[in-house]
Amino acid sequence: MSFLNPNLDLKPGNYAVIFSSERPVNPSPEGYDAMSDATMEAVAKIDGFLGYEVVRNGPDAVFISYWRDAVAVDAWRKAALHAEAKSEGRARWYDSYRSLVCPIEQLSFFKR
Questions:
Q1: How far is CA 101 from CA 68, 77, 104, 112, in A?
Q2: Would you say residue 11 lies in a domain?
Q3: pLDDT, position 25
Q4: In angstroms, how far is CA 99 from the centroid of its own chain?
């Protein structure tokens, strides 16, 4: 199964938030899976959330969320649940992470 989401309707002017992380996976740290489920449910309700793609290789992961514009990205950044997830992530779940917010200037997609 491909990590590429063929249902994304992306265009220049949208945003990508790239979250690269390292964390234990077997088992997941206590509370991680519940928070992951809660944040994915909450983010899907934010106006301007377009979807995501994720790839994991053992403890390493890249999660890319896509947004209509910077206003939508900011709405998620300011969400209380997101702040709680970031705090718990630093305190208990992640060994390291990097988050990048990138405007999409051009794109292409191919699927055979």
A1: 13, 11, 10, 29
A2: no
A3: 85
A4: 9
Is 110 domain-assigned?
Answer: no
How many domains is the chain partitioned into structurally? 1
SS3 assignment for the chain: CCCCCCCCCCCCCCEEEEEEEECCCCCCCCCHHHHHHHHHHHHCCCCCEEEEEEEEECCEEEEEEEECCHHHHHHHHHCHHHHHHHHHHHHHHCCEEEEEEEECCCCCCCCC
pTM, entire model: 0.92
pLDDT digits (tens, 9 = 90+) for 81-90: 999 999 999 9
Q: Which domain holds residue 41?
A: 16-103
Q: Check which CATH number belongs to the domain holding 78 and give it.
A: 3.30.70.100
